[in-house]
Amino acid sequence: MTMTTGTPDSHRAIEIDLTVNALLHLWLKAVTPNEPGSVSFYSVNGKSGEVQAANAEENLFCIYQVFGGGTVALAYDMAITSLSVAYWFTPSDVLETGITVIHTNPANGPPDFPGAIISARPSAG
Length: 125
Fold this sequence. Notes:
Distance between the termini: 52 Å
Number of strands: 8
CATH architecture: Sandwich
Strand content: over 45%
Order of helices and strands: EEEEEEEHE
Oligomer: single chain
Largest sheet: 4 strands, antiparallel
Number of helices: 1
């Protein structure tokens, strides 16, 4: 993996290796209505792009295409940006290879119901 350059030390960075013409799908929102949230993209050549979301009430769906492929870092400041889900795929072969989830926020998990019984096996009834 080739290291990316320019990612701020204060930001959370998720580094991934992508194929040529990969599409990234991100769901993000601002933590507060006072400042927009953003995710920046970095490669070996430095910052290559950014997506933003000003809404603090619900996630915004953003798309970013990586034409050349290679190692890319997604970087964001967790104090101002909430990244719910991020995944990538290549449109030409998504039906054969599917998507690759690179991030999911723990808040996306199912709620904890005290006293609930969860079973992975069907009941024998």
